Amino acid sequence: MKAIEIRNKYLNFFKNHGHNVIPSAPLIPENDPSVLFTTAGMQPLVPYLLGEKHPAGTRLTDYQKCVRTNDIDEVGDNRHLTYFEMLGNWSLGDYFKEESIQMSFDFLTKELGISKEKLSVTCFAGDDDCPRDEISANCWKKAGILEENIYFYGKDNNWWIAGEEGPCGPDTEMFLDTGKEPCGPNCDPSCDCGKYVEIWNNVFMEYFKDKNGYSKLKQRNVDTGLGLERMAMLLQGKETPFDTELFYPVMKKLEELQKVDIIESRRIIAEHLRSSMMIIADGGRPSNIDRGYVLRRLIRRMIRHLNKLQIDLKELSTLIDINVQNLKEMYPELETNEQTIKDVIIEEKDKFVKTLNHGEREFEKEIKRLGENKKIPGEVVFKLYDTYGFPPEVTSELAKENGYEIDLKEFEELFKKHQEKSRLGAEVKFKGGLADQNEKTISYHTATHLLHQALRTVLGEHVKQCGSNITEERLRFDFTHPQKMTKEEIKEVEDLVNEEIKKDLKVTCEEMSYEDAKKSGAIGLFTDKYGDRVKVYSIGNFSKEICGGPHVTHTGDMGTFKIKKEESSSSGVRRIKAVLIK
Ligand code: SER
Asked: pTM score, two decimals?
């Protein structure tokens, strides 16, 4: 079964079980500096798991584009991916363990045709924070899982939380027995020898963890995640995701083009190419910090491996074409953004080729200086990175090829210091989504808050910001609303914003804990990072919003607000472009 068929079956199955299909959020969480990329289907849904009402109801399903960057260096083996698609279904205070487990069982056995004998499941063994999950185990038994295939583990395996704090709970995981020989007498689903492969994870999210420990959430939720590439691989009886139709065309082309045969390099190229394309299609661009640096690393590592295979870098354009053709049905955004994707990757390639030539010469010099010493000091690795833009992973690979090691620890310490500095810079940049802060962009930022509140007053409380982008010329604002706004509604929103501007309202800022901010009724962007102190900006008594600022001090001088365009952004999301005329 092809990946796209699995996706369609999944969404249809849950639709038939009363779920609304919601669109994938972008890979780059807009205006959210706390995370680099969307890493799980639940991430954009955190506010709703905490009790906000979701406009699409209490049963949701989607496919979510995800990037996880902690495994970049593992890519090249037979399973790690940086980009992947997660299929998910959610109950927001609706069904709980029994129905969730029955649906998972039915989907796996009836829709995907997996025999129940091949399925094992794991449940939470219980501890002081949360009791043993006998309920889930019984639900599995009732659904049809063999008793000997039900396992219990502790928090290490059967507890799910994103990071240190946030909504969390015990989970139950499903494993497919690949039929391989057990690696020993103790081989079970917790073992990663490859006999049991995890295919789906249902989290029973009814707790919230913060510095003080666990508390119960307002509602009992279910959050599930099924990795599409892995499922496709298993159902197709393939050894790796690279053998599925998702990667196969690029892998095959690489085999044709290569002069040296290295399978790991082909996988790295195919994987990093797809990830880079997806990130660029969602607006990511290479740079030296945070998200941009991840993208830069992906593109650069891909190029290093194209070089290793002695493939002419001009072929990048062909490889991009192949991926667009192969993946456009699943991700139409690849076709819409094809030219941008090419431009960005090729420009980055040109830069990197220069860096490589330069850096390799410097590397040679440094090696000569070392003499007999076979360990390259972290300081040298850092200098190559910082002064010549030569990526540490490349230094490390080159070092290995030449029989050297690098002092990774020392390098990492220096790198951390450097990153802290960059992060401070990045925060200023991402806060409020403002790349440049000047009088004009600051006015637009305040106008965005007025618009947000005005939309909620005119259209209703279901309006939620899903993104915003500001330039010196205009603001762009995306929000949830099921239909096109009428002319009258647009006029009403404009008038309301202009009235508030004319009142010359004072803009004030207070710092408080996230919880207090929510209690005070502040609206805003909700990230999966809580417990921190947040800033709340109030505009008179009209608007109150969590935000990093900056804002005008009084609304009086902002100019006249005019909505230029109201259009659809994606399903259930509208986009407004507006200007301030002075
Ligand atoms: N949040 C869980 C995961 O990422 C289930 O969706 O696995």
From this structure: 0.70
List the CATH number of the domain containing 224.
3.30.930.10
Domain that holds residue 533: 439-581
Looking at the structure of the chain, the number of domains it has is 2
Choosing from 100, 160, 175, 207 the residue with most ligand 1 atoms within 8 A of its CB, the one to mutate for a pocket test is 160
Domain presence at residue 451: yes
Report pLDDT digits (tens) over 486-542.
999 999 999 999 999 999 999 998 888 777 887 888 887 554 333 456 778 999 999
How confident is the model over 180-205, as pLDDT tens digits?
Answer: 999 999 899 999 888 999 999 999 99
* Residue 165 and residue 211 in contact, taking contact as beta carbons nearer than 8 Å: yes
| pLDDT tens, residue by residue, 261-272 | 999 999 999 999
Pocket residue to mutate for ligand 1, from 49, 67, 122, 171, most atoms within 8 A of Cβ: 171
pLDDT at 254: 98
Distance CA 279, CA 271 (A): 12
238, 265, 295: which is the final residue of a domain? Answer: 238
Residue nearest to atom 6 of ligand 1 (CA): 225
Residue from 186, 59, 207, 191 nearest 122 by CA: 191
In this structure, the residue with its CA closest to atom 3 of ligand 1 is: 225
Q: How would you class 260 by CB atoms within 10 Å of its CB: exposed for 0-12, middle for 13-18, buried for 19 or more? A: exposed
> For 180-190, b where at least 16 C-beta lie within 10 A, e where not — what string?
eeeeeeeeebe
Output the pLDDT for position 507. Answer: 93
Mutate to test the pocket of ligand 1, among 37, 224, 226, 228 (most ligand atoms within 8 A of CB): 224
Per-residue confidence (pLDDT) for residue 33, from 0 to 100: 59
Asked whether residue 279 is domain-assigned, the answer is: no
Provide, for the chain, the percentages of residues in helix, strand and coil under a 3-state DSSP scheme, each rounded to the nearest 5: 45, 25, 30
- C-beta 88 within 6 A of ligand 1: yes
Find, among 231, 239, 211, the residue nearest to 7 by Cα: 231
Residues 31-42: what's their mean pLDDT?
A: 80
- Site to substitute for ligand 1 among 223, 228, 230, 528, most atoms within 8 A of C-beta: 223
Q: Measured from the CB, is residue 566 less than 6 Å from ligand 1? A: no
Residue 259 has a pLDDT of 96
Q: How far apart are CA 295 and CA 15, in angstroms?
A: 35
What is the distance between the alpha carbons of residues 41 and 63, in angstroms, rounded to a whole number?
7
Q: Relative to the CA of 202, which ligand 1 atom is closest?
A: 5
Question: Do the domain assignments include residue 20?
Answer: yes
CA–centroid distance, residue 92 to ligand 1 (Å): 15
Tell me if 524 CB under 6 Å of ligand 1: no
CATH assignment at residue 476: 3.30.980.10
Cβ atoms 299, 306 nearer than 8 A? no
**Residue 45 in contact with ligand 1 by CB distance below 6 A:** no
End residue of a domain, out of 221, 238, 255: 238
Q: 382 or 114: whose pLDDT is higher?
A: 114
Residue 88 counted as domain residue = yes
Please give the distance, rounded to the nearest whole angstrom, from the Cα atom of residue 161 to the centre of ligand 1. Answer: 8
**Range 365-389 average pLDDT:** 86
Q: How far is the CA of 168 from the centre of ligand 1 (A)?
A: 10
Instruction: Give me the pLDDT at residue 34, please.
Output: 61
